[in-house]
Structure of Glycosyl hydrolase family 88:
Amino acid sequence: MTKILPLLLLSLTLLTANAQKCPKPQPMKTVVNDALAFATQQSLAMAHSLADRPNRLPQTTDRFGRLITCNSGWWVSGFFPGVLWYLYENTPTDELRQQAHLISMRVADQQYTTDNHDVGFMIFCPFGNALRLTGDTTYATIIRNASNSLITRFRPATGCILSWDRAEWNKQWQYPVIIDNMMNLEMLMWAAGEFKNDQYAHVAITHANTTLQHHYRPDYSCYHVVSYDTLTGRPELKHTAQGYSHASAWARGQGWGLYGYTMMYRFTRDTTYLNHARHIAAFILNHPRLPSDKIPYWDFDAPNIPDTYRDASAGALICSALIELSGYVDAKTAKQYLSVAETQLRALAAPPYRNAPGNNGNFILKHSVGHMPNNTEVDVPLTYADYYFVEALVRYKKLKGW
């Protein structure tokens, strides 16, 4: 007995030490509320830093952590005002509403843009949320004008909205359509119902169906770019511009598709879209190279995994989509989706993904990848990572009824 007692004491000491090293995880309610409080602190600081820089909007940071801004014409311009509206929804203060409105109006001129397929991102992220939360019909007019602008880029011959003008990007593409464009359909689907305009819905549904047919491989991964022959309407090239290779699964692209088809099911209740979203989710969640924290590498097929960059923007996007998709499936599958989303929220809400207060231009998250092959915006904060993270937090909180 005298020999056993010291061993028992040693075992208890080791168990206590291990418990101290691995503290009990915080409840999800604490994680979510703390993350939203931090997001509010950072975002208001960012808004104040832009007060004397009219018509500028946050984009990313430079290698020294200094804020890089863009004008309203760059595709990411609507995300930061969208963040402010979500934060206002969570904590409806006068300051958040004022800042959300003022910064949203910096993007309002894009309602008339016809040379950019991302007018849906730029307008609906701020003004869709603004209208939903305030009922101010001024915002509705802006959305209607933007919807009219966006459908000018649709061509019946291809069945798609043109993404990039040919001379602007790669002259080998006749009619390039990128998977990101699925996200811009949300504005059209909402506007179709709000303004009783069947043309908006026709364009969005046709685009979604064409993309489903031609962008996806048998394993439900997708290409980034499909270029169509303008005469025959058939695909001529299938490429991946921002991923590792034409045959690879660029992480954020998989997220755009998951979110886009989940959203299309929300509006149409067409089970084709729901089943497709579930297949995309299965590809992502069952992928052998998805890390344990569920924040993907920038490309699922990057050759130097695990010694390469994660993409917090892809993680946040997938997380937000999974939370919504969990509401459309059976209980067992919903539990699986929410378990992954909770893992992602916990990861993004803590270091190393969470920014330090006041650092890196007051962004919320770090460690996103914009365009790896072009060596631009690599391992930096990105405004759309913040947007989908805050959206995911708000969605999860609503789901739980907190």
Observations:
- The chain has 13 helices and nine strands.
